[in-house]
Amino acid sequence: MAQDTPACGVIFIAAGKFHTDAAVSAAASVRETNPWLAIDLFTDQPQAAQFKTGEPFDRIVQIGDGHRRSKVDYLPKTRFPRTLYLDSDTRVVADLSSMFDLLERFDLAIAHAHARNGGRQTKFWRQEIPEAFPQHNGGVILYRGEGKALAFMEAWCDAYYEAGLKWDQTTLRELLWISDLAIYVLPPEYNVRYRKYLDVWDEREAVAKILHMAEFYDELERTPGALSRSESGFAKLVQRVRRRLNM
Q1: 246/106 Cα distance (integer angstroms)
Q2: Residue 25 domain flag
Q3: What percent helix, strand, coil does the chain show, rounded to 5?
Q4: Is residue 223 part of a domain?
Q5: How does pLDDT run across 125-158, given as a tens digit for each residue?
Q6: What SS3 string covers 135-193?
Q7: Is residue 3, in this structure, part of any structural domain at all?
Q8: At 64, which CATH number?
Q9: How wide is the angle at C-alpha 107 spanned by C-alphas 103 and 111, nearest 5°?
């Protein structure tokens, strides 16, 4: 690790203009709520190099082989000893410092897939796995950027291509099942997939930290021209969560 490399950072891996544009808004939410975190973007879009440092990315890595599941290729390429990978349809709405503290004890932290009871979420690759060990969602992954966790990311990349499946969580599930990593399952508030949870949780139950919702992509599709982090849907959602946090 270079001497000036931050210990903790967030990475986004985006292929194509749409997902790169979406990553800008996602990263802006990290910058606003956690300015202490470094943020890197891996993208195949050359125009991303025009961003000024810190607005919102600290480093942009150009990739030449982008595809729908490019994250399996570049998760092992992180420069941060403590790394949080986020999909580009996420928004961070709270301080994440305690989240990174998990890596003092665990190699990897990840939430269960919310929709895990049918369809592709129950498919096997090479072996059957107990139903009580469901898929984990690959859109929010906290991991050590070194040692066994980094080797796991490299193995996941190999497994994804070997399996030849469209979805990456099938191979992820099997590798987690056979792994000797110290794995922590994140509470659902660190990977909120559906707005309905915000309607039913009270403060004693859970307070959202990371929103991971397809509606952020829908919002981008409806937005002409350049994106702004002041998108009305996101702004209202953040305002709502902050009221719960008394921020």
Answers
A1: 30
A2: yes
A3: 40, 20, 40
A4: yes
A5: 999 999 999 999 999 999 999 999 999 999 999 9
A6: CEEEEEEEEECCHHHHHHHHHHHHHHHHHCCCCCHHHHHHHHHHCCCCEEECCHHHCEC
A7: no
A8: 3.90.550.10
A9: 85
